[in-house]
Design goal:
The complex is a heterodimer of chains A (about 450) and B (about 475). Helix content of chain A is about 35%, strand content about 15%. Chain A has about 450 residues and is α/β, with parallel strands linked by helices. In chain A, a hairpin with a 5-residue loop joins strand 8 and strand 9. At the A-B interface, helix 1, helix 3, helix 4, helix 5 and helix 6 of A face helix 2, helix 3, helix 4, helix 5 and helix 6 of B.
Chain lengths: ~450, ~475
C-alpha cells in the first residue's frame, strides 16, 4: 500500500484495505484470481502481437470474402478523427453541454444516413446489420400489431439466426420467400402468396445476399402490406435510388463499409432509419437539434422516453451502449470522400464485380456470375468440382476465396459468394485466377 | 476555476458544402429503375473535414480531458497500447468468414479470454458474442428460458428485479415478453421477505447487481440465491459493478448461474462516446449446452468453430462478437494480472469511500455502512434554495469535472451517483470533493444558470423532444422554426 492510500484510509477511519471489504461475508470471499501476475506494457504488446501474427489478414492474403462486410480502403483522416481521445474516451453524451462535439457529429451521421436511405430519422446505431434487422422486425410488430415477418431466402444465415432470437419475445413467425432461380432476386409471385392478413412487414435487401440488385422494389412496395423494411449497403446507396423514394418505411443495413474495418466481425455498426411518422416507435439513441439558454444552436439526446432508462420494460429496445464511435468514423468517411467520391467508389465496386466475374467465367470448371445482371461487390460462382476442394487449393496458394454456399444453399449446387473491392490489385486478381485455373 | 471548454460556432458539414457537381454518371449495369440522380451529401476538402471534426472533438469531454465520475459507468483510464494493438491489420483486416486455419491467433485470444473470464467470475463457460451489457442480459434471459423449457417447465415468465436495478434489466426482460415483479429495497438492500413473497413456480430468474447501484454489497447474497433456487428459478448477475469485487468474491461463489461482463467498464475498453462495448456472458456448467453458436473449440492442436449444438439458443448478433474490443480486454487483463486486478478493486473501493467521506456532511449519503466502488449522494438539502441536482451537475462542469450520474437510482431523492474508479489520484478526488462542497454554498442563481464554461450554456432538452429535428432533411423542412444563432 502506498502512502497516498494510507492517508485516505486513515481519513476514512479504517486501518487496512481489508476493512473496506468487511461487508463481503467470509462464506463468499475468494482468494484472488487464479491467473498469472501482471505483465509490463512491453511484454503484453509483444505477446499479443505474436498471437495476432498467427492470423492471415487481407494485407498478406488477398481475400475475396464479403457477405455483408467488405474490406475497403479507409483514408487515414478517418482514423485520425475517430482517434481523437475527446471522442473515443467519452461515455454516452448524457450531459449535453460538455458533449456538443460528439452530439453534432452524431447528428451529422444521422443526416448522412437519412440522405442515403431517403428516410427522415435515423438512430445513432444498432450493434450491427443483423440486430438492426431484429429490431426492425420488432418495430414493425409494434406499428402493426401483426405477427409475420416475410424475409428473403437469399439472406446470410447469421442474420436469419439473429432475427429468430430477436423475435422470441412477441413470438413472431418468420416466413421465407424463395429467390427466382434464374434472376437470383426475390420471387415476386412467391412473395404475393407469402403475404397475408397477419403480415407485419416484408423485408427485402438491395443489393441482396447474392450481390444482385432487386430491380423491382417499387413492385414489392405495392405487394407488401403496411411496413416495408429495406436492407441496403450504404455505399451502394450513393448510386441507387433511396429506398425512401420507393416507399420503404424502415431502412436498415450494415454500416461497416462506410469507413470501418471488418475487425473479425466486430465492432460493426447497424444502420437504422425510418419515416418521421414512426419515429416514436424507433429503437435506440437519437440526437436532436435544439438551442441553449443563449439561443445558440445546440444538440442533445432526445425522444428518450422510448429508451430503457426511462420507459423500462415498455422501452422500444433494451439497447444502451451502441456503436457510436463507428458512426463517428462513418460521418468522417462520408465527409472525406464527399458525394462525388462516394459515387465514384460505388461505381468502381460495381465495375470490379462485373470484371472479376467476367474473368472467372471462362475458366474451366467455373461459371460466374451465376445470376445475370448488375452486381454490387459480389456474385455467386458455381463450380463443376466440389467447392471445398477449390477453397483448400486457394488457401494453399495464399488466396482466400469466397464464402462457401453449398451446404447452406444446396439448390445452388457447388457454389461460393466472391466479393471484390477497390483494395484488390491486379496482382491479387492474377493470383486468384491462376489458383482457380489450376483446380482440377 | 480554470476550466474553459473550446467554443466554436462550427456550422454543420452540410452547411459548408459547395453544390456537389452532379456528374453525368455512367451507371454501368445498375438497373434503370434504381439509378440515383441526386445525392445531397457534403463535398468539401479533406482538410476542411479534418478541421471540422477536430473542432467538434474539442467541444467534447472524455476521460483524457478530465475526471469523469459517472456512476455505474466505470470511466477509468483506457491504456493507449490497446488502441495500437486493435489497429494492427491482423486484427482490423481479418474477415469473420475466413477459414479457421487463417485466424488461429484471434481464436486463441478469444478462447483464452473465455477461460480467464470464467476464472474471474467463478463460472464454467463463457460466450463472447453479446455486443454490450444489455445484450448480455438478453442472452442470459434467453439461456434461462431455454433451460426451463428443456426441463419441460414452460410456465416461467416472470423476472424479479429489485427497485435498484438498471433500466436495461427491465427492458431486456420486456423485450422477451416477460412480466416484471419489482421488489422494494430495505435499507438499501434486497428485502428478503419481499423476495420470498415474489418467487413462485412462475419465476424465470432474479436479476441482481452486486454491489447494487447504491454501491452497497448485498450481504445476504447466499440467502437470496437459496430462496431463488428453492423456487426452481435461476440467478442472473448484472456485471456492471464488477469493478468492485475482482478477486474478492465472484458471482459464481455467491451462487449466481449466469453473469455478464461489461468490457467497457471493468476491462477498460474505450466507450467511444456511447459504444462500442462488449458484453460476454458466463454460465455454470449446466447451462453450457444452451450457449450461442458457434462455440470456439480447441483440440490441443488447433482452434475451430462448432455450430452443431442442438440445444443452443442460436445467435444474438452476427459472427463472434466485438472481437477488437475483446482483444483490448484480453491485453488489459494480461497487463494487470491477478495482483493488478485485485488492486483495481481495492483502489476503486478506497477512492469511492474517500469521496463519500469528504462530502457526506454537505450532501447526505442515505443508508449506513461501507460502499464499494460507487455511492449515491442526495442533493435534497439544496432544494430549499431552489437548487436541484441537475444544477449541481451543470455547475460541476465549470470546475472541469464531468458530472456524476444523476437521478438514478430512483429510490434516492435528487440522486448523484459517484464512481471515481481506481485510476484517479487523491489529488483529483480532493479537487472534485472541494468543488462539490464549494458548489453547495454558492449563489443558487450561479448554479441554475450553469454551465458557464462549457461550449454551450444550458441546453433546452424539452424543446428538442417537443419538435424533433433529427436530420438535415428535417431541418430543411422545418426552416424558419430553427432558432437563429445569437
Amino acid at each position: 500500500m502506498d502512502s497516498e492510500e494510507e492517508a485516505m484510509l486513515r481519513a476514512i477511519g479504517l486501518r487496512s484495505i481489508d476493512d473496506l471489504f468487511a461487508d463481503i461475508p467470509a462464506s463468499v470471499r475468494t482468494d484472488g484470481i487464479d491467473i498469472p501476475r501482471g505483465l509490463s506494457e512491453q511484454e503484453v504488446v509483444r505477446h499479443v502481437t505474436s498471437l495476432l501474427r498467427k492470423n492471415r489478414s487481407a494485407e498478406t492474403m488477398p481475400t475475396f470474402l464479403g457477405a455483408g462486410l467488405y474490406d475497403h480502403f479507409v483514408p487515414a483522416s478517418v482514423r485520425a478523427i475517430a482517434s481523437r481521445a475527446e471522442f473515443y474516451t467519452a461515455y454516452t453524451p448524457y450531459q449535453a453541454e460538455l458533449s456538443q462535439g460528439i452530439l453534432q457529429t452524431l447528428w451529422e451521421y444521422q443526416s448522412f444516413v437519412c440522405e442515403l436511405t431517403g428516410m427522415d430519422a435515423a438512430n445513432t446505431s444498432m450493434y450491427d446489420g443483423s440486430t438492426a434487422l431484429g429490431e426492425a422486425a420488432l418495430m414493425a410488430h409494434r406499428i402493426t400489431g401483426k405477427k409475420e415477418i416475410v424475409i428473403p431466402r437469399a439472406l446470410h444465415w447469421e442474420k436469419r439466426k439473429v432475427l429468430e432470437s430477436y423475435t422470441v419475445g412477441p413470438g413472431l413467425d418468420v416466413v421465407e420467400v424463395p429467390f427466382d432461380p434464374e434472376a437470383g432476386t426475390m420471387d415476386l409471385a412467391a412473395l404475393k402468396k407469402a403475404v397475408g392478413d397477419d403480415t407485419a412487414a416484408v423485408y427485402v435487401e438491395n443489393p441482396n445476399f447474392f450481390g444482385r440488385f432487386q430491380e423491382d422494389l417499387a413492385d414489392i412496395r405495392s405487394i407488401a402490406p403496411s411496413v416495408l423494411i429495406v436492407g441496403a449497403n450504404p455505399l451502394a446507396l450513393a448510386v441507387t435510388t433511396a429506398p425512401g423514394d420507393l416507399g420503404a418505411d424502415i431502412v436498415i443495413g450494415e454500416g461497416q463499409p462506410l469507413g470501418n474495418a471488418v475487425n473479425y466481425g466486430g465492432p460493426l455498426v447497424g444502420i437504422f432509419s425510418c419515416r418521421e411518422e414512426h419515429v416514436r416507435k424507433m429503437p435506440g439513441r437519437v440526437i436532436g437539434l435544439t438551442r441553449d439558454a443563449e439561443d445558440r444552436r445546440a444538440f442533445c439526446m432526445t425522444l428518450q422516453t422510448r429508451e430503457q432508462h426511462i420507459r423500462r420494460e415498455r422501452a422500444m429496445s433494451n439497447i444502451c451502449t451502441n456503436e457510436t464511435l463507428m458512426a463517428v468514423s462513418s460521418a468522417a468517411y462520408v465527409g472525406v470522400l464527399g458525394a462525388n467520391g462516394l459515387r465514384r467508389l460505388a461505381l468502381e465496386n460495381i465495375r470490379r464485380a462485373k470484371q472479376l466475374a467476367e474473368r472467372i467465367d471462362p475458366l474451366e470448371n467455373f461459371e460466374a456470375p451465376l445470376f445475370p445482371g448488375g452486381h454490387f461487390n459480389e456474385f455467386v460462382v458455381r463450380c463443376e468440382v466440389p467447392y471445398a476442394r477449390v477453397h483448400k487449393a486457394l488457401l494453399a496458394a495464399g488466396v482466400h476465396g469466397g464464402l462457401p454456399l453449398t451446404s447452406r444453399f444446396p439448390e445452388l449446387g457447388e457454389a461460393a459468394l466472391f466479393a471484390t473491392t477497390e483494395v484488390h490489385t491486379e496482382a491479387d486478381y492474377e493470383r486468384l485466377l491462376e489458383a482457380m485455373e489450376r483446380v482440377r | 476555476m480554470t476550466f474553459r471548454q473550446a467554443r466554436y460556432d462550427e456550422p454543420l458539414l452540410c452547411e459548408k458544402t459547395r453544390p456537389a457537381s452532379d456528374s453525368d454518371t455512367d451507371f454501368f449495369d445498375v438497373p434503370v429503375s434504381l439509378r440515383r440522380k441526386r445525392l445531397d451529401l457534403p463535398q468539401v476538402s479533406e482538410h476542411e473535414v479534418v478541421r471540422h471534426y477536430t473542432r467538434l472533438s474539442q467541444m467534447n469531454f472524455g476521460i483524457d480531458t478530465g475526471f469523469y465520475p459517472l456512476g455505474s459507468c466505470t470511466m477509468k483510464f483506457n491504456p493507449k497500447f490497446n488502441e495500437e494493438l486493435a489497429r494492427l491489420p491482423e486484427m482490423a483486416r481479418v474477415h469473420p468468414d475466413q477459414d479457421p486455419s487463417t485466424v488461429q491467433g484471434i481464436l486463441q485470444i478469444l478462447f483464452e479470454l473465455q477461460g480467464i473470464l470464467a476464472k474471474i467470475s467463478g463460472m464454467d463457460a463463457v460466450t463472447l458474442q453479446p455486443a454490450a451489457g444489455a445484450q448480455g442480459e438478453f442472452t442470459g434471459l434467453l439461456l434461462a428460458r431455454a433451460y426451463h423449457l428443456d426441463r419441460g417447465d414452460a410456465g416461467r415468465d416472470e423476472v424479479i428485479l429489485p427497485d435498484t436495478a438498471h433500466g436495461t434489466n427491465f427492458a431486456s426482460a420486456g423485450m422477451l415478453g416477460h412480466k416484471i415483479r419489482e421488489i422494494p429495497s430495505e435499507d438499501g438492500r434486497v428485502n428478503l421477505k419481499a423476495l420470498e413473497a415474489a418467487v413462485s413456480g412462475k419465476t424465470l430468474a432474479l436479476m441482481l447487481t452486486n454491489p447494487n447501484t447504491l454501491g452497497i454489497f448485498e450481504e445476504e447474497a447466499v440467502e437470496i440465491a437459496r430462496i431463488v433456487h428453492d423456487a426452481g428459478a435461476l440467478l442472473y448477475y448484472d456485471g456492471a459493478n464488477f469493478n468492485a469485487i475482482l478477486g474478492k468474491t465472484s458471482p459464481g461463489k455467491m451462487g449466481f448461474d449466469i453473469t455478464h461482463f461489461n468490457t467497457h467498464k471493468t476491462f477498460t475498453t474505450p466507450h467511444g462516446g456511447g459504444g462500442p462495448g462488449a458484453g460476454p456472458v458466463g454460465v455454470k456448467a449446466f447451462l453450457e449446452p444452451f450457449l450461442p453458436v458457434p462455440i470456439i473449440t480447441f483440440d490441443e492442436r488447433a482452434y475451430g468453430l462448432d455450430w452443431d449444438r442442438p440445444k443452443s439458443i442460436g445467435k444474438v448478433r452476427a459472427w463472434l462478437g466485438n472481437s477488437a474490443l475483446l482483444l483490448r480486454a484480453y491485453a488489459y487483463i494480461l497487463s494487470q494480472g491477478s495482483d493488478g486486478l485485485e488492486h483495481v478493486s481495492e483502489r476503486a473501493v478506497l477512492n469511492a469511500n474517500y469521496i463519500r467521506h469528504r462530502i457526506e456532511k454537505h450532501l447526505p449519503v442515505p443508508f449506513s455502512g461501507l460502499r464499494k466502488h460507487e455511492f449515491v449522494a442526495s442533493g435534497k438539502p439544496l432544494k430549499a434554495k431552489g437548487v436541484r441536482t441537475v444544477d449541481i451537475a451543470k455547475r460541476l462542469m465549470d470546475y472541469g469535472f464531468h458530472p456524476p450520474t444523476v437521478y438514478f437510482p430512483h429510490l434516492v431523492e435528487e440522486a448523484l451517483m459517484i464512481e471515481p474508479t481506481e485510476t484517479e489520484s487523491k489529488e483529483t478526488l480532493d479537487a472534485f470533493s472541494d468543488a462539490l462542497i464549494r458548489i453547495t454554498g454558492e449563489d443558487p442563481e450561479l448554479l441554475k444558470s450553469a454551465p458557464h464554461n462549457a461550449a454551450v450554456s444550458r441546453v433546452d432538452e424539452v424543446r428538442a423532444a417537443r419538435e424533433p429535428i433529427l436530420s438535415w432533411r428535417m431541418l430543411q423542412r422545418a426552416k424558419g422554426t430553427e432558432p437563429r444563432k445569437a
